[in-house]
Amino acid sequence: MRALLTSKWTKVVVFLVCLMPLGSLGWRALHNDLSANPIEFITHATGDWTLRFLLITLAITPFRKILRLPDLIRFRRMLGLFAFFYACLHFTTYIWLDKFFDLAEMWKDVAKRRFITVGFTAFVLLIPLAITSTTAWIRRLGGRRWQQLHRLIYISAICGVIHYYWLVKSAVIRPLAYATILAVLLLWRIAAKYWPPPQPASVELPPKPQRAQA
Amino acid sequence: MLIRKAPDLTYADVTPKSLYLDRRKFLRGMGIAGAVALASTRLWNLASPRARALAATKFSGLIKSPFSTTEKQNTYDDVTHYNNFYEFGVDKSDPSKNAGKFLTSPWSVSVEGEVKNPRKFSLDDILKLAPLEERIYRHRCVEAWSIVVPWIGFSFSALVKAVDPTPKAQYVAFESYYDPKQMPWGKYAGIDFPYVEGLRLDEAMNPLALLCVGMYGESLPNQDGAPLRMVLPWKYGFKSAKSLVKIRFTEKQPPTTWNRMASNEYGFYANVNPKVDHPRWSQAKERRLGEFLKRETLMFNGYGDQVASMYNGMDLRKNY
User: Fold this and answer.
1) How far apart are CA A62 and CA B100, in angstroms?
2) Are A26 and B92 an interchain contact pair (Cβ–Cβ within 8 Å)?
3) CA–CA–CA angle B175, B178, B180 (5° rounding)
4) ipTM of the modeled complex
5) Which residue of A92, A200, B98, B268 has the smallest Cβ count within 10 Å?
6) Which domains, ranges and CATH numbers included, belong to chain B?
7) Which of B145, B261, B294 is facing A170, going by the closest CB pair?
């Protein structure tokens, strides 16, 4: 398992898999299969995948601990950046295909419509995280400060789920499913902080270079 | 942009149903194979009444309505694959996938309440009430998209006259069919069923209010509200209830589904109005399916000449 997780090729495969939602949109576009309202279809697909990648990113730490697979950390930055990538596509669809780059109109939306206010917040909060995702930035900020900054992902994910919840007309089941998963991932963190599980001596690993964890 | 549909594709380019169905004639022409195919079709019809409900009836001799728009119609494909019909699922693509087996024959609609002649109409009774017209209407959804559809039907007023409302009748409530067995997706829709919509009696009597039995020259597909629905082109689409089983004349304003669900978002009137936004989105513009740029939304969806006088003196901001 360890060899698989640390293999260079696994990273390449995961990268390609993360591109599949975009590939699917491209394929559908080529085959005229984006429904009667392609812009809405693209908006919903990119929004959905942003939320999914945020949740997957947030699931890395719990899975590392629960499954005792610390090497999963190798994928966290990439998954987080994919969340940002799909968020960018989602935002671009909105600003381009919905607002046609009418910035005044966009700001009116952001100020007036709470689901856009909260969605815009979720997006903006991801920007500093994407910028400081490099190793150089971790060094520059120092592990602790970097880690504190990157806790913004919690707020971004919460805002993202609320954005979805406020957007639907009546079918709240899907946004509530995202909310439930997010709640579990966040509650796990609280539980792990205040009630850390006893570490059996046998699985203790030799000390490794300090890596930031969020 | 790849997402654009081929702009030169119009409804005329869609394979006509007659040609499409000719596949069967072709089979029949294949001698024995044809006979077998034909026999099995017949058997299937006997065994399953649902199969009959799936076949579309063609309407002929339709009167061309002066209310029709000359705007470009949306494709049959768009109008049958992009639907809000929450009983069959909440995604736009769900009704076309899930409504296929919906049993719409035999069908009856009960007209009751404050009327002198309450009665149950079969679909055939309905078709005898008035000559069928083709009316090409703009249809504007509260979600800010729109389509142009050649509906088939006649003014709802013909039914009103047949049942003769009492002087007490002030409103009409329209109730849609609901059967959790045929519509198991309804459980997850987040709204209460059966779906109920309503009109003031004068609105229901407006000649534009269409009692609709078909579109594109044939009977309504299930996902578009078969076999009988309302079409109210000056109101947001959700007012036009589908698959009607009950029409009730009442003294008081009937409680309506979306209004009960969120009265601040969906008013009883729900007249198309670009100046009154939905609390969560603007109603100033709309996306006509098949078009890239958004277009301006028109007051009363462009039907002001026919309907504006019904709302004289009313504050349309309050009565949204």
Assistant:
1) 44
2) no
3) 160
4) 0.80
5) A200
6) 1-47 (no CATH), 61-311 (3.90.420.10)
7) B261
